[in-house]
Amino acid sequence: MGLVCRAVEEAGIPTVCVSTGRDITALVRPPRSYFINAPMGNNFGGAGDVATQRRILRAVLALAVEAREPGCIVDDVLQWPVPFAFNPALPTPEAIARQLRK
Amino acid sequence: MQPIRYVDALIAKYGAMGFPAYDWSRYDDAPFTPLRKPLAQCTISMLTSGGVSRCAMPPFDPEARNDLRLDTVEADAPSDDFQIHDSYYDHSDADHDLNCIFPIDRLREMAGDGEIGAVAPRLWSGFMGRIYKRQAVLQEKAPALARELKRDRVDLFVAIPA
């Protein structure tokens, strides 16, 4: 997605990337990034937490107004209430075989 | 807690399964286009890469690689009419409330309140599949998306990776 942001920005449209992977974002350097230290899939907080969703979206849009430095990363204040890890499901053997055929 | 180190974790996990080590794109600088209007006058579009599709559309392949599929999402799509298929992350919260990952209700509320100018006629879902074909993204698919955004007179684009 960082690459998509870079290409869209190069085409003349400002972008903000709402990241939950700070190290990946720091490598790819989208034009503007807003980092949420939350599990992947909770970029705007938890289910039903309308106030947090709205607060983060406002901050994301404000970054588009305020950013001056290309490649900037702004860190949100959110503290996720429980520890979390990266644990994607393992592909099934059928899925691996399908991918290898491509 | 400290941010998770995804780069190290991905190299270890996928390497153990026999996939080639992902050579992340690395840039020291970035392109930059200033926002030229106040938010209250901006038309805004969003993109999720979280394997999100309308219920009437085919599901995304939850274990896709190099899936460059890109769906359009109507600006008035009900947030409870989506399905999520992606083995890469825990989408149990987003299954209950799409706004966790794709805040279409919140964006529409901001348009209704006049905080932003408008929600673009088309929002977007795609680029979900562990994409190794970076040149196809940079030289074809993302520029094609940018052309569609310009057709919709989008002033600001929000990308939400998963």
Shape of chain B: globular
Tell me the helix content of chain A.
40-55%
Distance between the termini of chain B: 20 Å
Q: What's the mean pLDDT score of chain A?
A: 91
**Secondary-structure element series of chain B:** HEEEEHHEEHE
**Poorly predicted spans of chain B:** none
Instruction: Indicate the multimeric state.
Output: heterodimer
> What percent of residues of chain B adopt helix (DSSP H or I)?
25-40%
Task: Summarize, please.
Chain A is of the alpha/beta class.
Secondary-structure topology with pairs:
The complex is a heterodimer of chains A (102) and B (162).
Chain A: H1 2-10, E1 15-19, H2 22-28, E2 32-35, H3 50-66, E3 72-75, H4 93-101
Parallel strand pairs in A: 1-2, 2-3
Chain B: H1 6-16, E1 43-48, E2 52-54, E3 70-74, E4 82-84, H2 92-96, H3 104-112, E5 118-119, E6 122-126, H4 134-151, E7 156-160
Parallel strand pairs in B: 1-5, 1-6, 1-7
Antiparallel strand pairs in B: 2-4, 3-6
